[in-house]
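**Sequence with structure:**
===
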Amino acid sequence: MQVDVYGDTLCALVSATALASTGNQVQLHLPAGPHAEQLQRGECPFREAGLADLMAEQLQGGRLMLAPLAAPPQPSAVIWLALNPDSMPEALSLIAALPERCTRRWLVVNQSTFAVGSSELLQQTLLDCDTPPVNPGAVVSLPDLLIEGNALQSFMRADSWLLGADADWARQLVTELLRPFNRRRDAIMPMRPREAEFTKLAITGMLATRLSYMNDMANLADSLDVDIEQVRQGMGADRRIGDAYLYPGCGFGGLSFSRDVMSLASTLEGSGLAAQLLDEVLNINERQKEVLFRKLWRHYGTDLRGRKVALWGVAFKPETSRINNAPALKLLEALWAQGVEVHVHDPRALDTLARWAGERDDLVLHQDPYAAVAGADALMLVTEWKAYWSPDLPRLRELMAAPLLLDGRNVWDPAFMKQNGFTYYGIGRR
C-alpha cells in the first residue's frame, strides 16, 4: 500500500519505518525543523534500539522516502497522522486540503495524542464538502502506545492495539496494515474512536497513579522503619494487583507521559468532574523529584553550600537521551539553589542537558562516570541505566570525598553497600 505518514515525532518515525519494512511504500512528511534536517543528513533524531539501522535500510531500499509537509499524492491509500500533541490545527488543515476529498474514499489513521474527540472532529472535516461525498472517507483512532527506549519493538510486537473505528471497511484496512505485526495473537481491540482516545489517557493515568502511590508508601515506610522492597514484593504477589509500575523512586518524567496525565486531568475538569486524584498524583510526583535532595540536606545538617555532588543519570528513563520533565532537572535546580557544584554523567543525555542548562560554573559534565564522582561529597543515582547497577565499589569509595550514596531507583542492595563502607539512602529502604 501507499502510506503517507505525517510528523517528526518518535511515533511517526517508528510507524513509517515499520510499515515500510513490511513492503508498503511509505512517504514520511516532515515539518521543517531540526528533526527534518537531521534526517536529510542521514541521522536519526532518536536513539532507539534498531530504529536507525532499519530506517536506513528502508530508505536505501526505496520503500521509505522523505517528503515535505504537503498534501499526499493521488496514489496514497492511507494518511497516517503522528503529529505533536499541539498540532491539531495542522492536522485539520491537512485533512481539509485532501485532493478530491468529496469523491474519493480517504482513510485517515490518527495516531497523534490529541484531546478526546479529536478523531470525530477530523472526521467531520473530512466530510465537510460543498456536495455530499460519494464515497465518504473515515478517520480511525490508533493511539500511540509506544514504550520509549524500546519503541520499535513495542510497535512491531505490540501487546495491544486500540483501534477506534466506526466504519467496517476502515477497521478492516487498518487491520490488514497491522497484520504483519499481529501474528502471534490477535492484539487488536476494536472500539469507537472516542473510546480509544480516552483509553490511551486512562492507561497513562493508571500507571502514573500506581507510581505515585508507591512513592507515598515508600515515604511512609521511611518513617515506620519498614523496607518498602518487602512491601512491594508482597503487593506484587497479589494477582489482583500485579507487580508492574510498583517500583518507588525519585519521580517520573517524560514529555508524553506527563502531558497525557495532565490532558486526562484537564478532560475531567472540562466535563465538570473534579480531577482530585490525578491532581494529587501530579503533586506527589513533583514532591518526589526532590526526595534525594531532602535526604542529602538532612544528612549534612541543612548546610550544603560549597559541597560537590555527583549525579549518575539525567535522562527521564534509561535508553533515551530525552530529559523532558526528568526528575534530575528539579534536583539540579534545588542543588544549585543551595550552592552545590554538580558533576554529571549520563550515557546519552549530556548534550541535551548542556542545551537545557547553558554555560554554568556549577555544572560539570563527564564522559566517564568515575570522573564525575572524584572528590564528591555524595553520589546520587537518578536514572537506572544498567551500567550503574554494578559499580566498582572499592574504586568508588577511594575516589569520593565522603562515601555517601543516594539511590533514587533502589537498584543497589542497602546491606551490601553498607558492608562495603558506604552510607546508603534509598527510597523507603532499610
Q: What stands out?
A: The chain has a mean pLDDT of 92.
